[in-house]
Amino acid sequence: MKPLHAQVDWESGVLSQGVKRVRRVSDMIGLYHDEAAEQQAVAEGDPIVYEYTTIELPEEANHVLFGTTTIFPGRVGSEYYMTKGHYHERRDTGEVYVCFSGQGRLVMETEAGQTEVLAMFPGSVAYVPPHWAHRVSNVGDDPLLFFAAFPGHAGHDYGTIAQVGFRLRVEEHGGEVLIVDNT
Ligand code: S6P
Ligand code: ZN
Fold this sequence. Notes:
With 183 residues, the protein is mainly beta. The chain has a single domain (19-181), classed as Jelly Rolls (Sandwich). 8% of the residues lie in helices and 43% in strands. It is built from two helices and 15 strands. Bound molecules: D-sorbitol-6-phosphate (S6P) and zinc ion.
């Protein structure tokens, strides 16, 4: 294939030439801790939690897939808006996150039970090593925009997280960001 060129819209975070996907609270039922707050949010307009745009490329090991994500500010109960979070289907693939704007937390864990939380802020770069599930929460008052790149054959396993959840959740309590142990 030929090289390609795209552009990030700094306002929306959308990547030109990409395919945009929208995730609302109703797409995430069961992922937030407070089920009543989830139902209430859906009943009260089912807000958009995040959007992400990826450029369609061959899903093969010698390619690098990439995309941008915009998580809007907000909470479901005490829990900050976040991505679904996933393992890569091919567990032996990593990922790089570059934060463009906003304030976030990158929450990671392994199936062996290790956990890690890294701050995301404009200019922060995080490496998600192979075997770590990853989810991002927006802990600020503005949209959180970041760029991600990962091997083409990684694939996405959402089912494991949907079943077992993350061990840690990111919540607001008394104006502070708290990492709460789910286990
Ligand atoms: C893909 C990468 C991101 C996410 C995006 C949405 O490996 O981690 O592009 O797809 O941030 O999150 P999620 O958990 O719904 O895929
Ligand atoms: Zn990923």
